[in-house]
Amino acid sequence: MFTLLSGCLALGAVSFIWHNHIIDFSVLEYYNPGKPSILLDDQGNEWARFELDRRDPLPYSKIPKHLIQAVIATEDRDFFNHFGISIKGIARSMAVNLYKRRFVQGASTITQQLIRLLFFDARQTVSRKVKEQIVALLVEKQFTKEQILQTYLNHVCFGCGIYGVEAAAQRFWSKSAQDITIGEAAILASILKHPSRYCLLNSTENVRNRRDTMLNVMVQMGFITPEQCIKAKAEPIEVVARNTVQVAPHYKETIRIFLEKEIGKARLYCGGLTIQTGLNRRTQNAASKYFKLQFKALKGRFSDKIDGGLMSIDPQTGQIKAMIGGCSFEQSKFNRALQARRQMGSIFKPLVYASAIQQGSSFADVEEDEPIDLLFEGTVWSPRNHTRAFEGDMTLARALSTSINTITAKTFLRAGGNNVVDLAKKCHLSQELEPLPSLSLGCVDVTIKEAIGALNVFANDGVYVEPHLIKWVKDEFGTKIYRFEPQRERVMEPRVVGQVAKVLSIGIMRYLKQYKVADFKSEAFGKTGTTNDSRTCWFCGSTPRLMTVIYVGHDDNSPLGDNVYPLSTIFPIWLNLYKAIERDAESFVYDPSLKETLINWKTGDIVSHAYNKDIVPIYT
Predict the structure, then answer these.
(1) Backbone dihedral angles phi then psi of residue 53, each to the nearest 5 degrees
(2) pTM greater than 0.70 (yes/no)
């Protein structure tokens, strides 16, 4: 130990004489750890950024005495007595390391921590420790303890990208560090031991024991009285949220998680990157507004536990224009648009009918809506309609448009279960599927992202395109370091797509008529869906410009209750969203060989003009 210490002092002296210069800490006035990375929307405007949270540094005179005492008690009890390195600390750590026969404990003073923060990395090597000690000796010779402590407290990390006591106090409690209590000072000091574990934004309960321990130490060191300690321990441990409204927080969080893994945290927060996303601010803002309004009403009608998700994409590019992962990002970062898996229910049915059309069926074909018992591999399955009633003969067009379960099951058998499974796989539904008749009613678990990708083929001329958030990432010099190339593949013939989409548009027309909407300009199609026991309600709808999928349910998948219908539950979100963003009348482009034909949707008879409500247009 004596040899090591002597060597450090000698090296320090040699270094000082050899370089013959003084370390200039004035650069800390302008200390900049890097440039923030910005996120651009589809119009090229910044909508968010990734950056380290820093605030203007506090002078030593404005840093509360109890905060200084808490940090001294936690990090370096001999700070005001040593000369940059701690002899006792070095002896203790060497003893532990020799006993363990590996490097498990350091002996860093606050001065050494500051040196490491500014000039070195955190790798546990002997050479780094020696360099750190040399510079620490020089710093202590040139600067006062107050200057060192001030610089340390203004730059140290408090986890979650927060640097400096002022930024920490503002982020955790929405107030200046000058105004924190003794208990809050002990919390900040406690975080320094392990910022990622004890950051208040990650957990408040992890901090309690650490805080109380530090308060006891402060009593032992004579910094506070026992009465002050008791009072501080009684303070609640909580985060006071700032009154800020984030744009698309689930969208941003998903990008953060992905890019931290792809390019690393340091580069993301300090590399000055430009991240081009597919977000459309107008669409996102409208979706957020009407999603929150509708869920406020639903919570009053059903329960406070009800939640859901939403995703909107550009049908041709697959760029995600809006995404909502739940009612409150602050209460839950769980992203229901990407992580929650729910049964598809009736929104799966378009794939069943598309498969049947591929096999030669027509939407003018007639089937009987009747009670049926299907025997499959020794099991009897008896599908029933949502209304529990049966309506007799009708066309496949009416069966899909009004979501008749019995005829959908018959259509599944007509198409061939294996053909339906094959089409679902081509549409990138990830669950392993069996050709069981119950699949016809959507017994397949999906995320919103999977559902919208599969159903978007009806808006994109039969071509599957992978939904995605990021287009590209450029470094600070303008060089592209990442580019997303979405998967594209034709999964359905255009003539089939047009026929199915035309029938799905009949449903939208009925919904709009029910809501007395007469000024909906764009062509549109859509499908509602409800799973067994009303556990999940779905709606998917599209215009040529935007495809959207929404679901509502309980996170534990418990039933929503009685009289749950997508048309009254979540269709209003879609309707208000499109009314807010759509301006021009647009039409889908279908296979030009298709021709519009009017049929009686009960009998399948071709008619020359629409003379009653049973006449609907289909493509043939």
Answers:
(1) -85, 110
(2) yes
Please state, in angstroms and rounded to a whole number, the distance separating the CA atoms of residues 466 and 485. Answer: 9
Identify the bridge partners of residue 493 per DSSP, sorted by sequence position: none
Q: What is the pLDDT of residue 94?
A: 53
Residue with tokens 């004890």: 198
Assign domain 52-233 to a CATH class. Answer: mainly alpha
Both tokens of residue 305?
């536990």
User: Quick one: pLDDT band at residue 313, thresholds 50, 70, 90?
Assistant: very high
DSSP letter string, 426-471: HTT--S-----GGGGGT--EE-HHHHHHHHGGGTTTTEEE--BSEE
* 311, 322 Cβ separation under 8 angstroms: yes
Q: Average the pLDDT over 478-494 and give the result.
A: 95
Task: List every span in the chain annotated with CATH 3.40.710.10.
Answer: 283-459+486-619
Helices 349-358, 417-426: crossing angle, 10 deg rounding: 110
CATH superfamily of 283-459+486-619: DD-peptidase/beta-lactamase superfamily (3.40.710.10)
Three-class DSSP category at 125: coil
Taking only the tens place, the pLDDT of each residue in 399-452 is 999 999 999 999 999 999 999 999 999 999 999 999 999 999 999 999 999 999
Dihedral pair phi/psi, residue 155, rounded to 5°: -130, -10
Residue in this structure with the two tokens 């779905």, named with its chain if needed: 538
Q: How large is the average pLDDT for residues 189-217? A: 86
